[in-house]
Write a structure and sequence with these properties.
Jelly Rolls, Immunoglobulin-like, ten-stranded antiparallel sheet, mainly beta
Length: about 350
């Protein structure tokens, strides 16, 4: 069972220290007790036991219904918590059979910081990673783009996997090695949300990891908006092997001809571990232009505040959430696992 969320409800959050119950020791690594936090934030916990873990529950402010639940045999928990402002308590509970161990702590959510909490009237697209995988260009359906989007060393695959995942179901974008023939390969995976012509604010988030030992050149996370034959193309990437290794944003109409522009914010992605990236941008159809407002990587937010002009296109109106793993100069292959993908427009 996945955590339950609706568009009009943004949950409050909390975390804890550690306690011993029924043979399990649960420890919450972050955030710290009584921390002041922006929205959203990461909850990371571990469970030490000699038994077989049968799942995790997370409870919010004494609610008897779990905010989050999985049935994974995993000693770690790592989820993104959507939280309203105020003081809240959250309990992380690790199950071994019918025996739980738990830990809790209280934190103060002080606001969205640079990235605002979407209003209750926002259009919310939860768990986009759970949409069907296909190739029929339907709304809310994962598809790949090779021709005109990247190079293809082998047939790319996208599958649903339970491990590794944060909530019991993640996407595995796997690309075999391209060798010397296909260096710097790239495979774009995208999912159309439908036209959002009345919206001017856009947020999107992805949780991801690459397999241990992988060596991706770059990891792209995009949320393009197409309205009235104009492209407000929010394109971003962690340029992991770049010089410098940093977060870049896409400027399609850059007079200097350099479409990937450095934000000046360094990007270090460890392999075999979960990370979360969240972007916030606004558009002005009168311009027409759009602004990369802010970035959040894991628990740190960064001011971007970079405006760029929209490009002219012939695509129908749409809002799309996508990601693209990119290969290095040797064409090495790897898996990128993507989970808990969500977006908001208003």
């Amino acid at each position: 069972m996945k955590h339950s969320v609706v568009a009009s409800l943004f949950f409050c959050a909390v975390l804890g220290l550690s306690s011993l119950a029924s043979g399990q020791t649960v420890t919450i690594q972050q955030p710290a007790s009584n921390a002041s936090l922006d929205w959203p934030f990461q909850l990371q916990a571990s469970c030490s036991t000699t038994g077989t873990i049968t799942g995790w529950d997370v409870y919010l402010d004494g609610n008897s219904t779990p905010y989050y639940r999985n049935t994974l045999d995993s000693k770690t928990l790592n989820i993104l918590v959507q939280a309203t402002t105020g003081s809240h308590t959250l309990v992380a509970k690790c199950w071994v059979g019918s025996s739980p161990g738990d830990a809790s702590v209280t934190v103060d959510v002080v606001g969205g910081g640079l990235i605002p909490m979407p209003p209750s009237t926002a259009n919310a697209f939860w768990n986009i990673d759970d949409d069907p995988i296909g190739n029929n260009d339907a709304t809310r359906n994962w598809e790949s783009c090779i021709s005109g989007c990247g190079s293809q060393p082998d047939d790319p695959t996208l599958t649903d996997v339970s491990t590794p995942s944060l909530d019991g179901n993640a996407l595995d974008a796997n690309q075999l090695s391209g060798g010397s023939t296909y260096t710097y390969w790239g495979i774009l995976w995208y999912d159309h949300m439908g036209a959002q012509d009345s919206s001017t604010h856009f947020e999107a988030q992805w949780s991801f990891q690459v397999n241990s030992g992988a060596n991706p050149q770059a990891l792209e996370f995009d949320f393009p908006v197409w309205i009235g034959n104009k492209s407000y193309y929010f394109g971003t990437q962690c340029n992991r092997l770049g010089s410098p290794a940093d977060w870049d944003y896409w400027v399609p109409t850059n007079p200097a001809g350099k479409q990937w522009v450095s934000s000046g914010i360094s990007c270090s992605v460890s392999t075999g571990a979960w990370h979360t990236v969240k972007w916030y941008g606004t558009i002005d159809t009168a311009g027409p232009n759009y602004t990369y407002v802010a970035l959040q990587f894991d628990n740190t937010q960064y001011n971007i505040s970079q405006e760029t002009s929209a490009a002219t296109i012939s695509y129908p109106d749409n809002f799309t959430v996508q990601f693209q793993p990119d290969g290095d100069k040797a064409g090495d292959g790897y898996s990128e696992y993507v989970d808990e993908v969500s977006a908001w427009t208003w």
